[in-house]
Design brief:
The chain is of the alpha/beta class. The protein has helices spanning 9-15, 31-36, 54-73, 85-89, 112-120, 150-162, 173-182, 205-213, 224-227, 235-247, 276-286, 289-301; strands spanning 2-4, 39-47, 79-81, 96-103, 123-127, 165-167, 186-187, 218-220, 254-256. It has one domain (2-301): Alpha-Beta Barrel (TIM Barrel).
Length: 306
């Protein structure tokens, strides 16, 4: 079974013509691939283009949520919306759970009511920024590197009240530490180890340990330039991130967030969802079956919000 913490299928469905979740060869994740590779829980991010004007953003988020229900849920009786841990563990054999997540709070602007609406529509994990600054905090590529704003703290406190995940992927370092101070349920949906690949989107050792200490999960991602700084990234390079995080004490806090359909370049052997089959087989060569099951599924599943 597989729990994948991040993909951008909804953004592609919204912005590209002729794309179908059914079996489109242009998508990294499709219904057919989820079934073939024994996908159990897939998170679908709501990502808003940074080119949109403020008054366009919330509507764009709602359009992606409509696509989620109309194109992902409605045509597939065996795909179920997941809004709690109980929902996950109540999935029948052959059923796939799907989760709405938010990648960046640009969509809510400075309005907590909009955040509440997204929660009521099913969002169960919220990433506070994309790479740039917004009203909540600064992103990983924002040179200023500021932490949470007053409004940002209000947002995290609201997420605590909802009892949902606060996603630190894409935050700048100061904002990360502010979130660790405030958030009850921090995770990183798609970030790798900075020590192995010093990209601003990756997490340093003390950050990884902080998530572990708060009983969160780090979703290692298959983005090539988050895996290896120079040269072509391979599955062996991804394995190095798995090994490194385990050495930091992360065996029970390690999962995967592929970022499929949010990337143009892929890793050979990890270029689409169905490659999870071979990825699991490779993990089993180096780790026990129990460890592999934790990495692929249980570490995220058992920490899903109640």
């Amino acid at each position: 079974m597989i729990f994948d913490a991040h993909c951008d299928v909804l953004y592609r469905l919204q912005n590209e013509t002729g794309v179908s979740f059914q079996q489109n060869q242009g998508l990294h994740i499709t219904y057919e691939q989820l079934k073939k590779a024994r996908g159990k829980v897939q998170c679908f991010a709501i990502f808003i283009s940074p080119t949109l004007k403020p008054f366009e953003r919330f509507r764009a988020a709602l359009e992606q949520i409509d696509l989620f229900y109309e194109k992902i849920i409605k045509p597939h009786p065996d795909i179920k919306v997941v809004q709690s841990r109980k929902d996950i563990f109540n999935l029948a054999k052959g059923e796939i759970g799907v989760v709405l997540t938010l990648e960046g709070c640009e969509a809510i602007e400075e309005d907590v009511l909009k955040l509440k609406i997204l929660y009521h529509l099913g969002v169960r994990s919220v990433g506070l920024t994309w790479n740039n600054a917004n009203a909540v905090a600064d992103g990983a590529l924002e040179k200023r590197g500021a932490g949470l704003s007053t409004f940002g703290r209000q947002v995290v406190e609201q997420l605590n009240c909802f009892g949902v995940w606060t996603d630190v992927s894409h935050l700048c370092e100061q904002a990360f530490w502010d979130v660790i101070d405030v958030a009850h349920l921090p995770i990183a949906s798609h970030s790798n180890c900075y020590q192995l690949c010093p990209h601003p989107r990756n997490l340093k050792d003390d950050q990884l340990k902080a998530i572990i200490e708060k009983d969160g999960v780090i979703g290692l991602t298959f983005v090539p330039f988050f895996v290896k700084k120079e040269g072509e990234a391979t599955v062996d390079d991804v394995l190095k991130h798995v090994e490194y995080l385990c050495e930091l004490g992360g065996e029970d806090h390690l999962g995967f967030g592929s970022d499929f359909d949010g990337i143009d370049e892929t890793i050979l052997g990890l270029d689409r969802y169905e490659a999870y089959e071979q990825w699991g087989e490779l993990l089993n060569k180096y780790y026990s079956s129990l460890q592999t099951e934790k990495f692929l599924y249980y570490n995220f599943a058992r920490r899903f919000p109640n």
